[in-house]
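Weekly puzzle thread! Below is a chain. First person to post its structure in token form gets bragging rights.
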Amino acid sequence: MARQQRGHSEANLGARHGRLRRSVSWANAAKVALTAVLVATLSGVSVTAYALWGAVQGAQTVELPSSPDAVAAGAQSLDGELTVLLVGSDKRNEESVMYDGEEGELNDVNMLLHIPADHKSATVISIPRDLMVPIPSCTDPDTGETSSAMSEQQINTALSYGGLACAAATISELTGMDIPYAAMVDFDGVIDITNALGGITVCLAEPIEDSETGLNLPAGEVTVAGVDALNFARTRYGVGDGSDVSRISNQQVFMSALLRQLRSSDTLSNPGKVYALAKTGFDNLTLSSSMASVQFLQAFAGTVVDIDLDRVNFVQYPSYAHPYDPGRLAPDRAAADELIRVVLSGEPFQVAGTGEAAVGGTVTEAPVEGEVPAEGATEVPPVTVLPQNITGQSAASETCSAGRTKF
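Winning reply:
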């Protein structure tokens, strides 16, 4: 029997939102694991794919509506553009050390990685968990029940209606982008990932104090690992204005620091470290069947190996306060359309800033119209300036967490 379509009565939304609030302490913790997965593939080290042979063979897989051709054995890179959805689930497994008795599963982390056909850049679009969006009809892979299409629900409920395939369909409908590849990770292994790297050094412009997570970090350069890294990843009330949007900009500080550290350290020249990082990152993955092969992972690594850090960009999907649902967000469709157009084109772009919870860093400046390059200089390609409410940074930008800026 199909599930009944869920409306917007106060009681119905209140019940659902109550459940969402109980998962706040977990929200975004999976970004650490997702980042490690992204970093491992961006490293371009073939041992990463080799290390995943056992994990891939035993990985849970799901089918997506869009099924690309299988990658040929020995392929050095993927053909054309590449789009991968990375989802962080808040599922609590009973055998996990982090199990707290909570039930259900939400896609609290949604990151869309796009690499254009020339393979010269990569953009990761973070989509806020509080965004209210249409959710298409989905079939629950466990029960076989089909839900009715909904005109508006919080985006992180998509997983509960139809698993990873439903999350991919929802985000594909939101962005207009075809999503042929998707991966989902839960919270297990987050602590091990940062410990395997020896900790991540992040910059704090102000101390972070968050009683919700127990995080207490001083200003300055701080190396976080294990539980502290987990809490840095999930803190919401300790940064910016305490919103999910601020949390994402703080996460981008962490992700860029992690990627820079991995690229500049001895990690990539140490097969043991690469193996440990890759295996830890992928042990708890659910993959689309299109990704579940060593051939794909090897070709993926070859596709991204030569992308410079200043061409790896983290941006946030644009939104504004929801007009009738306090505490939730509505998509800024006009700004989002421009973002997606530019990302798909692969052309350089400039964002308005780093967001509420991040400070510092370098911002690419658009060339002055009509400016003539100096004699012998290489002509600089035009840079598209994105709408003002699109924030982010490149992986090469050294930014600091701003701490709590508004109360």
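Puzzle host: Confirmed. Bonus trivia for everyone else. The chain has one domain: 10-367+380-401.
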